[in-house]
Amino acid sequence: MDGIKGLLIDVDGTLCLGDSIIPGTAEIIEKIRLSEIPFLVLSNNSSMSSEEYLGKLHRLGFNLKREELLTATEATVFYLKEKYPDARVMPLGMSGFVGELIDGGINIVDDSLDVVLLAYDKTINFDKLNKAGHYIKQGSVFLATHPDMLCNSSDGYDIDIGAFIMILEKSTGVKATIIGKPEDTMARLSMKRLNLPAKDIAVIGDRLYTDIAFANKNKMQSVLVLSGEATVSDLKDSQVKPDYIIGSILDLDKVVKF
Ligand SMILES: [Mg+2]
């Protein structure tokens, strides 16, 4: 790969699988940090605050600094402040997620709202979905933090937010606006943080429809790792194609010099 000056590295499926680290990946992160190449670890996880997520990564063995992590939660605060600075927002999300919105100055309400914001909410139920659906149908903006259908867990995969987005879309006829990968908010934030144009950045991740689509949509280069969700047979059926494919991030030096 030519001219790579910055890296965006996915977490689940790339550095870890659920609550287990992929052996050797913490050492790769250290090696990248010692090189000239700046990087960000990027996660669509919106089930907790960025601080809580950083704590999880520390417990797994990654010696990351706060500024080296960019989450969908953080991107959501950025997006709301940029597009709807005065909006009254009803989040469907966990307490850490909601806490980060409040700390970011977002006006959180439970009624008379302008924005329905769907995050990864393990307490989601009929009443919450029904209320959200009513507001969306009445004209509230419908945002979702990320589009993933599944997330890695100790049982293999858990249901993620994607199916709940579909419930609300189907029942209201309104399409959600997605904030996390593959859309552009995290790309714009990443370019700002790395101070690099898209073409100089490579995205490393395990999912075609989030990580690789994110790179392609935002004109970045892409490296698919086969240590997570995507398999070689998925690649054959997919319209979304990566620039490079490696077995895992442990092989990154085969495609990027660092
Ligand atoms: Mg992943």
Task: Please summarize what this structure is.
With 258 residues, this protein is α/β, with parallel strands linked by helices. It has helices spanning 25-34, 50-60, 72-83, 95-103, 126-137, 162-172, 185-194, 208-217, 232-237; strands at residues 6-10, 16-17, 20-21, 39-43, 69-71, 88-92, 107-108, 115-118, 141-144, 150-153, 156-159, 177-178, 201-205, 221-225, 244-246.
Task: Please explain how this structure is put together.
With 258 residues, the protein is an alpha/beta fold. The chain has 2 domains: 6-44 and 181-254, Rossmann fold, CATH 3.40.50.1000; 73-178, Rossmann fold (3-Layer(aba) Sandwich), CATH 3.40.50.1000. 35% of the residues lie in helices and 21% in strands. It has 9 helices and 15 strands. The protein has helices at residues 25-34, 50-60, 72-83, 95-103, 126-137, 162-172, 185-194, 208-217, 232-237, and strands spanning 6-10, 16-17, 20-21, 39-43, 69-71, 88-92, 107-108, 115-118, 141-144, 150-153, 156-159, 177-178, 201-205, 221-225, 244-246. The strands form 4 sheets. The protein has a 6-stranded parallel sheet, sandwiched between helices. The protein is globular, with a radius of gyration of 18 Å. The termini are close together. The model has no long low-confidence stretch (mean pLDDT 96). It binds magnesium ion (MG). Magnesium ion (MG) is lined by residues 10, 12-14, 205-207, 228.
* CATH third-level topology of the largest domain: Rossmann fold
Alpha plus pi helix count: 9
Going by CATH, the homologous superfamily of the largest domain would be: HAD superfamily/HAD-like
Mean pLDDT: 96
- In helices, the fraction of residues equals 25-40%
Question: Strands of the biggest beta sheet: in what spatial order?
Answer: 5-4-1-13-14-15
